[in-house]
Structures are given as structure tokens and as C-alpha cells.
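Hey, quick one: can you model this chain's 3D structure?
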Amino acid sequence: MTRRVLHVTPYLDAAAGGPPVVVERLAEGADPNGYAARILTSAALTEDGGAALGRRHGVAVVPSQARAIFGSGQRRVAEIVRAVDIVHLHTLWSPLVAAAAAAARRAGVPYVLSPHGMAAPWSTRQKSLRKRIYWGLVERRTVANAARVVFTSAAERDQATLLEAGARTAVIPLGADAPPAPRAELAAAFLAEHPDLVGRPLLLFLGRLHPKKRPEALVAAMPAILTAVPNAVLLFVGGGERRIVQALTRQAQELGLGSSVRLLGPRTGVCKWRVLAAASLFTLPSQQENFAIAAAEALRSGVPVLTTRQVDIWQEIVAADAGRALDETDIVGSIAREVVALLGDGAAAAAMSENAVRLAESTFTWHRCAERTHVLYDEVRADA
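Sure thing. Here's the predicted structure for all 384 residues.
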């Protein structure tokens, strides 16, 4: 008999970053594991009021998160929850997630919760007063009644200060899609679009341009990098608020970096894989990431990763010699030193590239992630 799982996420638009990708991949992996998946989300971040999402099979959309907590919206959430065997909640600090959790408790439907980094200290410090109030009124109950709190790494679990004694947890690493073609073929296609980059070391930042990811530290490191590697180029691939894009552009101009720093905007699909394949190093000096799917995709592409100890898969990356952890006491200097060292040691970079692929293919695959997640659902349902 096919079992039914409901994934609840406050947003499903790709602009929201990691959680929508996780929900999509787990839903795709449901059928091979004996489940039928449905998704409940809101129209947040969409440009059409959620109309396109609502036309997708298996996706239910409420107009806004606030509409899920009263009236007809609340009744609709309750009806959807009652029709499934288990609920998987994604993210914290969300009225829609809280409404689904409350509906599950009333209906006696077990649920698991994936915080997606939102239980980490960096996240809880943002708008901290508002979150403390919301925690006391709503979110403490959501977390306390979860059959499992699911983390993507041991580091994310260990940093989750919101957990209370006795909380049952699980650690299931996320996955990364496989490149759609051989690396050489993808890289050649990117360089055909940018012939002036042929033969030049490319440092890649791929993801949403957000202050917590510290893209400005990469720009600040470029003068020192260019002193040692004059033909290096820093590529920013991703969208962000206009003020952040303008600030990075202005910073590069003030430092006289010219075409050594380029903001290419968002790239999706095969275009994303082409720039990944062409990159020499992947750089993510973030202040907090619970997993960083883009980093895992870089690993699958054979690109060594430079990141911080605040990216929760840094230990796996360093242990596999697939990258380096940056020194946060001197983040700009550390970026420059590590980049120069790796670009100057072709043998070490080549070995890291092989290690990166090996790590990603053995640990960070969606097939493995989906399999383990659905086994967890079975365990939770058996305990209920």
C-alpha cells in the first residue's frame, strides 16, 4: 500500500534558495521509496500570486502564510494534513509551517521537522526579539512535538541551541544533482561564451548574494590574489538585492579591479553547470550555511571548495581533502592565501578535484538522501 507524505514549505520559488530544492528532490524520490508525495506551500516570492505553482500536480498553494492560520485557509490546511500518513515540515519561523504542525497534532498525524539551518545561532540572532516572542507563543510547541528533528549534518545538530532535553534527532545529508555532461564539454561551452577567460584561473561564487555569505570579502581579497596570480578572475553567479549588487560593483571599481571581478547574474539549468565546470575554485566565505547545496554541486563537478567552519559540511570537505576551511579571524587574508596556494600547486588542486568528486558521489546524492528520509518516515509511523 502506498503511503502518503506531505511536505510543507513556506515558499517553493527557486529564488528562496535551498529549502525548495530539497522539497522538490524529496518529492521526486517518494515514489521509488513507496510513498506518494504532496507539497503544501504559499505564493510567497512568486510573481503571479502562485498561479503557476497551483497548476502543478500534487502542489497546494495558499495565497499567503498569514491566510493559513485562520478561516478558510486554516480549514484547507487541516483538510490536506488529515489526508496523509506523515508530514515533513521545512524551515522554522513560518506561520504556514506552524499551522500545519498544529493541524497535524489535532489530527494525530506524526510530523518531522527540518530546520534548514534556522535553529543555528546566527539565524536565531537575526530579529532576535521577534523570534523570542514567536518561540514562546508558537514555535516551541512545533519543535517539541516533532517526532524527529532532521539535520543535514552533525555540525548543524550540535549548533541547534533551540533543542530541549529529550528531543529526538536524525542526521541525513542532502544531495547534489549530477552534472548533465562531462566537465570538459560543459567548461568548453562556457568558455565559448567568454573567450577572454580561456586559460585564466576562475574563482567562483555561486548562490544568492546575501550579506551573511560575505561576497564583499572575496572582492577585498582580489588585490592580494592578483599580485601573485595576475590573470585570476572572480565570478559572481547569482541574484541578490539591488543594493548588494551595486555595493559589490562599487567596491570592485574603488579597488581598481576592472574585469577581474564580474557579476554574471543568475544562471540555472545547464548554464549553471557550465560555469561550475569552468571554475578553478569554488569560494563561499559564509557566516552560516546548514548545508550549502551549491558547494555540494561544486564537489560533484570536481571543483575544490574554500569555505568557512560556519558551513556545516566543512568537516567532511576538509577530511576528504576536497577543499580548505578559511581562517575567520582574518577572512580576507585567509581567502587570498588559500587561493594563491592552490592556484600555484597544480598537483594539489588536481588531487582535490578527484577527492571532491569521490566525496560527493559517495555522500551527497539525492538518491541516498531520499532513501534515508523515507526509511525515517517508516520508523516514525511505526512509533506513532
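One thing worth noting: The longest strand covers residues 35-42.
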